[in-house]
Please model this.
Amino acid sequence: MSDPIAYVRERQRESLAELIDFLRIPSISTQPEQQAETAAAAQWLADKMKQAGLENVEIIPTPHHPLVYADWLHAGDAPTVLIYGHYDVQPAEPLDLWESPPFEPTVRDDYLYARGSSDDKGQVYIHVKAVEAILKCYGRLPVNVKFIVEGEEEIGGESLSHFIPQNKAKLAADVALVSDTAMVSAQQPAIVYGLRGLCYAFIDITGPKRDLHSGSFGGGINNPLNVLAHIIAKLKDEDGRILIPGFYDEVRPLTGQERHILAQFPLDEAAWLAETGAPEPWGEPEFTLVERLGARPTLDVHGIIGGYTGAGAKTVLPSKVHAKVSMRLVPDQDPEEIGRLLKAYIAELAPPSVTVEVTVGHGAPASITDFNIPAMQAAAQAYATAFGQEPVFMREGGSIPVVSAFQSDLGVETVLMGFGLPSDQIHAPNERFYLPNFYRGIETSIHFLQNLG
Ligand code: BES
Ligand code: ZN
Model:
């Protein structure tokens, strides 16, 4: 019987074909019309876990999208690894910008193009294939393994956040392993030790009870769209400082040591800028670009709805307008407190001539992982073996809500062992996964489990 590395190398074609099947399922968690497809992705994954030799495979219903659990717990006193990922994906819109349809996975050059290819189906499937290879070759794993895969990560992970504190024994582990982040480049792996948190909010403004002619009523009735613009303009100044009173109160200051570590980070600013297509970088002048991207909080508007947005012109005072806003948070900001501060500030800005409502949606605290735990060494060595390069340690600006829950509810630290690339276009049209990273990822996961055992 071959060893697991030879085993996966001989079966790359089959692994790719399976991933393509997984990616065909439009498991868009935020869209109610994709509820059945989202459940189908959970079922698909559960079936593959069974075929991989995992035990106690369960689809756990929740008020929203199901969780998938599986384990293999016959390694005695060896450590237990809790492997997390998500099978849900972001909406694929705008569809016309995709070169091949988002749910018809297509290989071009060395990339697999599809929504969810990098974030996160391709990355979570890596670990299923790794476990399968070791079990098929040796009949046993060097460590105990538990999988928990959710379908609500892209919408804040609420069901899992309730499940974790109620199932502490079931999820008990020595360390968690998550592949849902990116490397620095195809040559340079990275272990993320800090993630930002998030607070998402909706602003809804109502003026008149119906749309009004702007000639007959303009000047005498306040236009909610103008009010929305005023409010949004007061959330942040031109340099990126957030103007919500109290917003920075709990921000843990960056230490000199951490600023020093972040200054060593190998960010190629020109290449990074070229990737975005923006004319120049921007942000808080007293912080470096690397600091702005991972270690400072931000506020962004993601959508504004209101008035006439069809072709041509229309003179109307809209009745109702809406905005979607999020704030990325850093330690020790509390998402609920930040939501309250935003509400209070907007209530103060709102004129009595309209009705302004702020609804705070999902949130997650930021997380910082202790990178002196043994599993970090196992991960660093695994990367070095599979990629021929030691990883760098970095902070990431995105959020993975479960990581702080693992810390606070289970006392478990997470190794964020990512295989994406910054150019994967996650959440955007033409999301892709670099296939050599898919295959090397499977090998890295095998080495990691073996190093830890
Ligand atoms: N995989 C991302 C997190 C991420 C983003 C890692 C960028 C590395 C680079 C994750 O699936 C994600 O997008 N999370 C959401 C969570 C939010 C909705 C709570 C995010 O960050 O917007
Ligand atoms: Zn993700």
